[in-house]
């Protein structure tokens, strides 16, 4: 499976051919997990030739990438020009399966439409509002936002294509109207859309299986196979250990000597989360340490020679960033490379690396 691992490192832009601009990174991977906003910024940054957290945020402010609930009902960064057809292809399936949660929260289409009108009126004309401000408007108009009702309304309305996240104001995320934020977003037929999504996924994540694609996109296996069929002329495949793997046009994997084989990846990174089967890069006995308590929270990981072999934590202090490494196996001979990877992260954050430590 080492060939699979090596190709994924390069196809995911972790090793080798990095991109110049954030929107190029996001487009290459198709979409990028973004449940943790700051971790998602680093997921983009580590795949760029150079740049800082401010560069990625400016790219979002320039309407090049969009943050919204996309596939599987989770937050993703997606290219601005693709957000509408991706929502139509992927989010509609999530909403169609939301009946039970709506009943639990005592929400119905009449309430959702009422809330949508309130939010539209508040945002129309290129305005932006924070979540607390929108919650207050809903409450003032008689719509209770307690017990997750407010969050679910925003989640539902965003996936319906009315709103998306705007730039942050201080520590608060804002919301804007999608049509105003991404006015040039394209429409595509469903057949065309599933083919493009398959090509993007396998080019940016491959080698991967049809099951990986179906899980990542939150679609059925038959729909995933339809996407592969539509993109087949632009993909290659190979049987590995009895399974069929797909990826984009062959690329030169290159030598690991070209750059260090040690990387600090953010939590929720596509390298781990972009596949149903993660066994190629993560041993089963380590899985519980990257997802403590199996609660859906993915820790930032340390990748060495393609394998997830530890986790890391940061603490931002006045003097810079302190980083603690927790390795699953003894790797004292790679300590210098791990520190170099930490320095690359701190350069992205535009802060000095203050202190590093290895957990005993």
What does this structure look like?
There is one protein chain. The protein has a 5-stranded mixed β-sheet with strand order 9-10-11-12-13. Helix 5 (83-96) packs across helix 11 (190-205), helix 11 (190-205) packs across helix 13 and helix 12 (210-217) crosses helix 13 (221-231). The two termini are 31 Å apart. The chain is globular. The chain has 16 helices and 13 strands. The chain is of the alpha+beta class and 360 residues long. It folds into 3 domains: 2-181, no CATH class; 199-247, Arc Repressor Mutant, subunit A (Orthogonal Bundle), CATH 1.10.10; 256-358, no CATH class.
Give the SSE map:
Layout: H1 2-11, H2 22-29, E1 32-33, H3 37-45, H4 53-61, E2 65-69, E3 75-79, H5 83-96, H6 99-104, H7 109-123, E4 129-130, H8 131-140, H9 149-159, E5 163-169, E6 172-177, H10 178-181, H11 190-205, H12 210-217, H13 221-231, E7 236-240, E8 243-247, E9 262-265, H14 270-273, H15 287-290, E10 301-304, E11 307-317, E12 320-327, H16 335-349, E13 353-358
Parallel strand pairs: 12-13
Antiparallel strand pairs: 1-3, 2-3, 4-6, 5-6, 7-8, 9-10, 10-11, 11-12
Helix pairs in contact: 5-11, 11-13, 12-13
